[in-house]
Structure formats: C-alpha cells, structure tokens
C-alpha cells in the first residue's frame, strides 16, 4: 500500500528525490523501470542511486511506502537485499525514454519527450502520458516561473496519452531508439472521442481509469458518451460523484439521459441530484420518457387488410385506404380477429403480381413490440432494424397499434 | 520540431554522454597519468634539457602507441572479468603464470623504490626529511585504500591525476617561444644526427610510456570497477583521453626544461627542479610538486597492481571494495611492498642508482612476454567473442609490440652497458 | 408455426390450385399435374392443427383466384 500526496505527477519531479529506508537515508531516486503491459506501461521498480560509488538499488514498486513532496520512503530496512542492476532489456524511464525524439506514424519528428506523467491507480503506478509541451521543457530547464506564466498565456497543453505510443523498440537504450506514436502529427491533441472510446474499451479497468483521469473534462465527457454502456457504468462507478456529475453537465440533455438510463436506478438518482439544477428536470423528463409506455406514442390509424385482399384492388384503393392514416408505408395483414398475420411494404405491393393476394406477398415474420414495451425499447428496436414503423401486439398477437419512427424521433436526437 | 527543441535534444544528448563518461572514467586516465611517474618525469626533463623542443614530435607518436596497447586490457578485463595475471595463468599454464607474477613483483617493487626516491627528492627541495616523506606517503596511501571502496580510491586518485597537470601552468610561466616549439618540435627531426645517445633517449621515452605494470594494473582496475562489455567504448575513450593527457603533460615538461635548461645535462627530475628554482622559484616549486605527485600516483598504482596480481594468482579476495577483514592478504601485500620499498630509500648508502638501472632490465624481461600474451589473449575468439582483435588491430598492436620489445630490450641492455651506444 | 405463415402457404396453395384448374381446362394435363404437386406441397407444410382454421380462407382464396382468371379470360 503506497501513500502519495498527489495522484498524478511528472517523472522529472520525483527523480532525484531523497530515498529513505524507513528512517535511514539511502540515496536519491535515479530512474524508474517500467514494464509494458498491453497499452499503458506500469512502473515496476525504482532505481536508487547511492553516494560514494555504492551499487545502486532496484526497489520493487510494492515496497514503496510513501512518495511525498520531498522524500520517498521504502518499507524495508535491509538495503543489501536490493543491490541489483536492472535486468537486461528493462526499460528505464529516465535513461531510455526521457529526452528521446517523438516520431509520428510517418516517422516525422514531432518533438522531444520532455516529461512523462505518472498516475496512481489502484495502488499501481502507470506511465499515462508523454508530455512534449514547451511548458515542460521550461520546467526541465528550471524556469518554473516562466513556464507558469506561459501556461497562463497559452493554455493549450501538448501531451499525448501513452495509449498512442507504439510498443517501445526492443533495443531502446540510453542513446538509441525513439518513441514512436501510432497517430499522425496533425492528429495529436484532437484525437477523436470515438477512437478514444474504442481504445478505452480494450483496456483493463485500472488502465482505463488511469487514461480517463488524464482527459480534459470536455474530452472526457465526449468520450464517456461514446463508450459502450458496460464501460460507462464502470467508469461512472469508479469516478467520484462530483466529477461524474460535472462530466454529465457537459453533455446534451438527451445524451445525459441516455447515460443515466444505462446506470442502476439509485446511482442515476444520486447523480441527478448533483447535476445542474436547471437541466436536471429536463434530463429527468427524458429518462422518464424512456420508461414511458409505448402505447402513448402509438397510433391506431394504420392500414389493415385481410389476407385475401388482392394486390391490385389494394393498390387501386390505396388513396382511399391511406386517407387520414398515420402510418401509410406498410399494409398490415390481419385476420377477422385482428390477429397480425403479416406485413406488406408498399414497395412490395407495387412490385407484386396484380392478381396475387396479400397473403402470398406478405412478410409473415413481423418484428413487433409487445404491449408493455417502453419508449426505450422502441428506440432500441428502431435502431437495430431501421424500420419506419413497428406494430404493437397484445399477448394474443392481436395488433393494437403502430408506432412510427417519425413520432419518436424528436425525443432521441442521437438516433436520427 | 523547432530549432530550440533540436538544440535541447542535441545538448542533452551530449550532456548525458559526459555524465555517463564521468561515471565510467577512471582506469584509463589513472593508468596513463600514473605512467608519468617519477622515472618518467626524469626522462622527459632530461630529454627537454638535452634536445630542447626537438623531440616533441616523438612524444606525440607515443599517443597511439600507448592507446593501442592499453585499450586491449580494457576489452580483456571487461569481457573476461579477470585480471591479467589470472588470464595468463589460465591460458598459458603455471610456468608463465609464475614467471609473470614473480617478474611483476620484482619490477613493481623496484619501480616503487624509484617512486620513493623521486618523492623524497622532490619534498627534500622543500626541506622535508626523507623519513617524514616515507611515513606520510605510507599513511596517505593507507587511508586511500582502507575505506573499503573502489569508488573513493578512484576519485582520490583522479584528484592526484589532476594535480599532475601542474606542469601546464608551469610551462606558461617560463614564456616559451611558441614559434620555436612549432617549428622545431612538430616536424620529425633528429637533432645532431641519429647517434647512440639520441637513440638512448628515444628508447628511454618509449620505455617509460609502456611499462609492464600498466597492463596488469589497468586490467585489474577495469575488473575491480566492474566494467561490463557495454562499457567498453567508454573505457576505450577513457584510455584515449588518458594517453593524450599523459603525452600533453610530457610535452609541457619538455617545454619547461627545453626553455630554461636547454643544454644542461640532467640526471634526475629533482635536480631539474632545483635548477629551475634558481631562475623562477614558482616553476621550480611546481616541478617539485609535480614530481612528488607523479611519484605518489606511480606508487599508488604500482603497489595495487602487485596486490591485485597476487590476489588473482593465489585466489585471495582482491578488491578495493572489500574491508581489511575480508581481504587481509590483499591489503597485507599492498602494505608489504609499500613499506619495504619505502624503507629501502631510507637506508643510508642504499644502491639507489643501481636499483633504478635494474628496473629497466627486469622490465625488459617481463614486457615482451606480457605484451605477446596480451595479443594472444585478445585473439581468443571463444572468450572474447565480438570483442576479439580484428586483423587491423592485430597488425597495429603487433607492430607496436615488436617495436617496443626491440627498443626496450636495447634500452635495457644500454642501461647495463652505458658505453654501448655512446 | 405462426398463423401468418399458414395463411401465406394457404394463399400460395390456392394460387397453384387455381393455375392447375386453368391448365386442365386448357388441356395441358402435364402442366396441371405439376401445379397440383406444388399445391399439395404447400398444403403439406401447414401443420394439421392450423388446417381447419384456414380451410375457409383457402376456399375463399381459390374462389377469388378462379374468378379473376375467368374474368381475365373473358
């Protein structure tokens, strides 16, 4: 269990920090060993440099007890047990990554790795971001005040999440190897939330959170919308409520309603209380609508025909049949008890042989909604099948109404 | 990427290499600067006094000579992680092992005596009695090694190496004629024709540049420092820098004596220092301090070279990273050679001149064997792998070894029979 | 089977049957036989418990079809 003052910091900030073994001062932090696990590298060891040519120490991350603003404390007193050189092939953040060139996907030189951001997530330390802003350069050069001043003037921080860093070259060394990205130079900084969402879905939960925490709120909000509901739930669960509410505030009402609808009811209620009081009722209304009975949006003004009807006569009669109807693009084929037998699309009707009965040309596998379906179910169905209208059946498969996409579209801007 | 970033990138890369070098620097510089030991200073001083600036070009030739020989020990040490004595023992059997060891012991001990001679003579100029010098030196050298860290030893020794550069300001203080140095010194020439005496001086200069203990010392030091194969390029650079430094110091000594004492016959460096004091007090003092420092550096390295070799052959713990309790024999042999050599100097009427001569003779018997073994070991593909000698390296090192062996043999003979080349 | 499917099959069966009757009237015994096989095939696919339910529908269909054919010929 490690205690840190801040959950995220830059590697250059902790390098050179005094290291203590319990009470005894041992040396200074010289380097950080990282292990590439999938996408975001995890810190595995600290390398501590000792004075007077004593061999340096390789301390596993699990032994680090505290990282404070001035010191790092190791929870052990047996110094000699850690005397070791980093194993062959390990990646040292300072020696191998810092101050290396960053190349984009086409091998264009982008910048220099001025710093690497480390994030603590679930007791693991991840290298989450590669920073190549001039702000960090100035800080590295010791010009902190100038860096702060410039940061105020020009807040566009330039850094790139480690998920866009290609696996480091195998032979990376103190003087060889570059840090290569898998995005183009032009795209850095405005990586599309949809892409980001795709990558987030691939990561394990801790890594995902480590990345997500790094995003600007606006970007995070956009990305949160795009990820799949399962991941949405996980992210919202892991974020503290205020942050989550802030992200939700940045979404449109409909998006917020979608997100909240995917959450467990109690969690959604909790968040609704935290978001902007002005928008909350509107969002609430939309969520409620999601649960509303589909019957409210259904119409019984649709074209019903017996199976025995002849295509020609239906076409001849169409003007008459379609008058005052809400749903005119489908002809529903019903038996005398209103049992839905099939459906005929107007296009199918026109193309049918004139002497054919509707029963011959109808699609008998009708996608339908149950009577107790909600608006949300209807929206999902429309999204999945892209029909222009759906019949609603009672439990005996009798048609009780038809809901047209046109009628529900306004409620769901995301589905246009 | 803008120019600022580029500048940062390249400067940072450079700074990083400097930092890395500073960590890995040591054996090469130390061995090369210690090469300018008391005997070496005497030789350069005498060369300058006798021939002025005319032999400076010859000293410059010694840069690659020293580099190519010593560079091989870096590779051998870093790859095999064994000292030179051990390597010879394993590769060429007990006879050559013992031969090398005993020869090394003798030549080291004798050289050590000459270092003490130089140191006592140098401090005598400042009125320090010889016994005090010997005691002080023994105590100082004890302190350097007894803290049980190679690192501390190396850093202190590097400090003494820096002190060796005292000749450089000394040379500027005598206002030498740069024009003369460039005109007479850099063009190869044989002042007064190629005769026996000139030949003697040339051989003396080579003889002090390549000494057998240097091979043993550097290889052991590389091993004790724990240099790895990946550090070899830095070790080579270290050696190269050292070889330049040693020759630069030599050149400046020649410049000093060549400017002030040209035409005076000089037998030893302390004599030169006294003579210089008459013309310029500070230059003379610098010369004396430099002589003492050279002697001290020589003593430090030579006594260690012996102890390391002993440890390697007898299988004792032999690292400066050990405490006295852990490696009693290593430290015992160190102090034994040191103190006995110091005591010899204090014996009234000891045959010091004879000893100085004898050093060259014994060195001549050891040097060919050590150098040939070195090249053979460097050609062992099985152990050296990719760090094996290339044909061109073999050619360069081979020719250097042949020349050195021939010349140092002649030099050794000539010290025994001074009339031979007159 | 859904009732819709049964209705569809019944409608198809009636169309085949009407065609068979028409061909027989025109003297094409072979063609009539082929249509009759298709007609029986369609009927055969309708599960027995649904057959009685669509019986009258089939009759109606057949009647309309034959009517259409005759009118078309007239």
Q: What does this 3D model show about the protein?
A:
The complex is a heterotrimer of chains A (416), B (422) and C (74). Chain A has helices spanning 11-14, 93-97, 134-140, 144-153, 193-202, 205-214, 217-226, 229-238, 241-249, 253-261, 265-274, 280-291, 311-322, 346-351, 358-361, 375-385, 405-409; strands at residues 3-4, 8-10, 18-21, 24-35, 42-49, 57-60, 64-67, 71-74, 91-92, 101-103, 109-112, 115-121, 124-131, 159-161, 179-180, 302-305, 327-334, 340-345, 369-370, 389-393, 399-404. Chain A is α+β, with helices and mostly antiparallel strands. Chain A folds into three domains: 1-193, no CATH class; 216-291, MgtE N-terminal fold; 295-415, Roll (CBS-domain). In chain A, the strands form five sheets. In chain A, strands 1, 3, 4, 5, 6, 7, 8 and 9 form an eight-stranded mixed β-sheet that branches. In chain A, strands 2-12-13-14 form a four-stranded antiparallel β-sheet. In chain A, strands 11-10-15 form a three-stranded mixed β-sheet, with no helix packed on it. In chain A, strand 16 (302-305), helix 13 and strand 17 (327-334) form a beta-alpha-beta unit. The longest helix of chain A is centred in the C-terminal third of the chain and has 12 residues, at 280-291. Mean pLDDT of chain A is 82; it is low at 412-416. With 422 residues, chain B is an all-alpha fold. In chain B, helix 4 packs antiparallel against helix 12. The N and C termini of chain B lie far apart (69 Å). The mean pLDDT of chain B is 84. Chain C is mostly helical and 74 residues long. Chain C has one domain (9-73). Chain C contains three helices and no strands. The longest helix of chain C has 26 residues, at 48-73. Chain A binds chain C through residues 307-308, 310, 333, 335, 339-342, 355-360, 362, 364-366, 397, and chain C through 2-5, 7-8, 10-12, 14-15, 57, 60-61, 64-65, 68, 72.
């Amino acid at each position: 269990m490690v205690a840190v003052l801040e959950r995220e910091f830059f590697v250059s900030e902790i390098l050179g920090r005094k290291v203590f073994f319990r009470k005894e001062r041992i040396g200074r932090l010289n380097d950080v060993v990282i292990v590439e696990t999938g996408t975001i590298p995890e810190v595995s060891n600290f390398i501590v440099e000792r004075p007077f040519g004593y061999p340096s120490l390789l301390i596993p991350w699990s032994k680090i007890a505290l990282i404070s603003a001035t010191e790092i404390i190791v929870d052990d007193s047996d110094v000699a047990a850690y005397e070791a050189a980093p194993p062959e092939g390990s990646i040292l953040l300072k020696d191998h990554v810092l101050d290396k060139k960053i190349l984009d996907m086409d091998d264009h030189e982008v910048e220099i790795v001025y710093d690497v951001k480390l994030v603590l997530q679930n007791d693991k330390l991840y290298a989450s971001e590669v920073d190549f802003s001039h702000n960090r350069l100035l800080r590295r050069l010791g010009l902190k005040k100038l860096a702060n001043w410039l940061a105020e003037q020009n807040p566009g921080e330039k850094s790139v999440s480690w998920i866009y860093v290609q696996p480091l070259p195998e032979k990376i060394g103190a003087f060889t190897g570059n840090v290569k990205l898998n995005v183009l130079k032009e795209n850095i900084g405005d990586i599309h939330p949809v892409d980001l969402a795709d990558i987030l879905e691939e990561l394990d939960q801790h890594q995902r959170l480590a990345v997500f925490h790094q995003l600007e709120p606006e970007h995070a909000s956009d990305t949160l919308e795009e990820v799949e509901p399962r991941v949405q739930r996980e992210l919202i669960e892991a974020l503290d409520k205020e942050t989550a509410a802030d992200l939700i505030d940045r979404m449109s009402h409909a998006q917020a309603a979608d997100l909240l609808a995917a959450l467990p009811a109690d969690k959604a209620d909790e968040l609704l209380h935290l978001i902007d009081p002005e928008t909350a009722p509107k969002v609430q209304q939309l969520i409620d609508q999601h649960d509303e009975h589909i019957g409210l949006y259904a119409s019984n003004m649709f074209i019903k025909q017996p199976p025995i009807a002849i295509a020609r006569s239906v076409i001849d009669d169409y003007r008459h049949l379609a008058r005052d109807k809400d749903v005119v693009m489908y002809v529903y084929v019903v038996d005398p008890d209103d049992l839905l037998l099939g459906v005929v699309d107007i296009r199918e009707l026109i193309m049918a042989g004139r002497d054919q009965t509707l029963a011959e040309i109808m699609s008998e596998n009708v996608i339908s909604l149950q009577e107790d379906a909600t608006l949300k179910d209807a929206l999902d169905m429309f999204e999945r099948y892209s029909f222009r209208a759906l019949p609603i059946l009672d439990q005996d498969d009798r048609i009780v109404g038809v809901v047209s996409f046109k009628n529900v579209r306004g409620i769901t801007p995301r589905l246009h | 990427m803008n120019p600022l970033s580029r500048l940062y990138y390249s400067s940072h890369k450079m700074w990083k290499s400097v930092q890395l070098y500073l960590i890995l620097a040591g054996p090469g510089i130390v061995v090369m600067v210690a090469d300018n030991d008391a005997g070496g200073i005497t030789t350069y001083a005498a060369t300058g006094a006798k021939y002025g600036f005319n032999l400076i070009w010859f000293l410059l030739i010694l840069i690659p000579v020293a580099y190519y020989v010593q560079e091989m020990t870096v590779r051998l040490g870093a790859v095999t992680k064994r000292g030179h004595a051990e390597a010879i023992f394993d590769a060429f059997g007990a006879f050559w092992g013992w031969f090398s060891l005993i020869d090394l012991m003798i030549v080291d001990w004798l050289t050590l005596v000459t270092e003490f001679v130089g140191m006592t003579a140098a401090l005598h100029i400042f009125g320090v009695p010889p016994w005090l010098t010997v005691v002080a030196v023994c105590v100082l050298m004890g302190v350097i090694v007894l803290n049980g860290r190679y690192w501390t030893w190396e850093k202190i020794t590097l400090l003494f190496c820096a002190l060796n550069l005292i000749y450089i300001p000394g040379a500027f203080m005598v206002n030498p004629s740069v024009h003369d140095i460039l005109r007479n010194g850099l063009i190869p020439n044989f002042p007064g024709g190629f005769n026996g005496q000139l030949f003697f001086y040339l051989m003396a200069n080579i003889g002090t540049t390549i000494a057998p203990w240097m091979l043993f010392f550097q290889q052991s030091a590389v091993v004790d420092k724990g240099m790895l194969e990946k550090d070899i390029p830095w070790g080579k650079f270290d050696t190269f820098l050292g070889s330049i430094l040693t020759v630069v110091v030599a050149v400046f000594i020649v410049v000093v004596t060549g400017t002030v004492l040209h035409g005076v016959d000089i037998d030893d460096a302390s004599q030169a220092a006294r003579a210089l004091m008459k013309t310029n007090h500070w230059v003379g003092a610098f010369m004396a301090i430099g002589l003492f420092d050279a002697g001290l550096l020589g003593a430090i390295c030579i006594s260690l070279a012996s102890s390391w070799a002993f440890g390697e052959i007898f299988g004792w713990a032999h690292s400066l990273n050990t405490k006295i309790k852990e490696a009693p024999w290593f430290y015992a042999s160190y102090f034994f050679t040191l103190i006995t050599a110091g005591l010899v100097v204090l014996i009234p009427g000891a045959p010091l001149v004879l000893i100085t001569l004898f050093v060259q003779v014994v060195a001549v018997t050891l040097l060919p064997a050590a150098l040939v073994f070195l090249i053979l070991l460097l050609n062992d593909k099985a152990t050296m792998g990719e760090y094996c000698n290339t044909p061109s390296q073999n050619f360069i090192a081979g020719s250097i070894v042949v020349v050195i062996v021939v010349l140092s043999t002649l030099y050794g003979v000539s010290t025994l029979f001074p009339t031979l080349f007159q | 089977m859904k009732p819709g499917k049964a209705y569809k099959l019944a409608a198809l069966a009636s169309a085949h049957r009407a065609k068979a009757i028409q061909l027989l009237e025109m003297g094409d015994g072979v063609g009539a036989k082929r249509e009759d096989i298709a007609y029986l095939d369609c009927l055969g696919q309708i599960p027995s418990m649904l057959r009685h339910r669509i019986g009258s529908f089939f009759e109606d269909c057949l009647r309309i079809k034959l009517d259409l054919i005759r009118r078309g010929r007239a």
